[in-house]
Task: structure prediction
Amino acid sequence: MTSSILNGTENLTLVRGISPKGLAFVGSDFHGKKFPKMGMVLSSRNIRGKTIAPKCSLSASRPSSQPRFIQHKKEAFWFYRFLSIVYDHVINPGHWTEDMRDEALEPADLSDRRMIVVDVGGGTGFTTLGIVKHVDAKNVTILDQSPHQLAKAKEKEPLKECKFIEGDAEDLPFPTDYADRYVSAGSIEYWPDPQRGIKEAYRVLKLGGKACVIGPVYPTDWLSRFFADVWMLFPKEEEYIEWFQKAGFKDIQLKRIGPKWYRGVRRHGLIMGCSVTGVKPASGDSPLKLGPKEEDVSKPVNPFVFLLRLVLGAMAATYFVLVPIYMWLKDQIVPKGRPI
Ligand SMILES: C[S@@+](CC[C@H](N)C(=O)[O-])C[C@H]1O[C@@H](n2cnc3c(N)ncnc32)[C@H](O)[C@@H]1O
Result:
């Protein structure tokens, strides 16, 4: 398992581009072209002498060069209608493993069995299985927009006492100041408006509660970037931080997550790239004000356009099923200690 922690405060200077400092990792190349040292630490030097100024809004809107066919509620719904059949057999063993999940959940600080936890985009309950190791299942709610994914979660014995809710991450059916922990793993990439989802995370947490959002990162390799843009949203690390900051979170941390056979290479944008956490510093709603929701899953769509998007998006997703296998093979072939 490869992981490293970045601190949101350091990133703030990066995000705003007002500091001469940048982020870098001792022993690694931010662009993933070199083999990084494990247990990377934060240092303050520029990335190739440049200050990165992320354009957060670009992630929510979709420029024609980044169509992100499945970053829509209806498409994601149907994508999971089919993927749910094989999800536990295809995704978890090879792409989002128990090791990765447990590493990613560690910053969520699930320190008390009585904690109230919501798992948003909980799907087949793979991440929830990691949560109930630390928290009583009766205190955990799994929310997902896909009844097909939830049906799989309901079959799992350790989750029998959890609550199951069909709902939208951008409009959570929980009261304000409700939960001790908000967890969402591998779901943000499908939300049409990720900032809204993170604002909701803030709202439903109690004062001092912690949000933990786990998701992919944007590839730097040109081919992987192409397929990522066709499939869904692969946010940049700075964008995660910026969404958390804008929602009002404090003590923001970002931990990099990846399969151990990648040897730290990040150029393809991992299926699970990072785990971002933040603490709610005041009770009540987020200070961020947003307009109406961009998409509603119940709205009718043009069936032809919808089908085309679904097929193209699913084809691009297939690339990301193959990349980890390619990387695994490389890891087997290239001698240990050499870059892959
Ligand atoms: C890659 S799966 C992750 C499932 C689970 N968290 C895990 O770790 O295996 C993504 C899940 O997000 C759900 N999802 C996508 N968009 C959503 C939305 N707007 N609201 C709620 N769930 C959503 C999908 O239905 C799917 O089950």
In short: The pocket of S-adenosylmethionine is lined by residues 73, 76, 80, 96, 121-124, 126-127, 144-146, 149, 168-170, 185-187, 190-191 (CB under 6 Å). The beta strands are 5-7, 24-25, 42-43, 117-120, 140-144, 163-166, 179-185, 205-215, 250-256, 274-279. The CA atoms of residues 176 and 284 lie 6 Å apart.
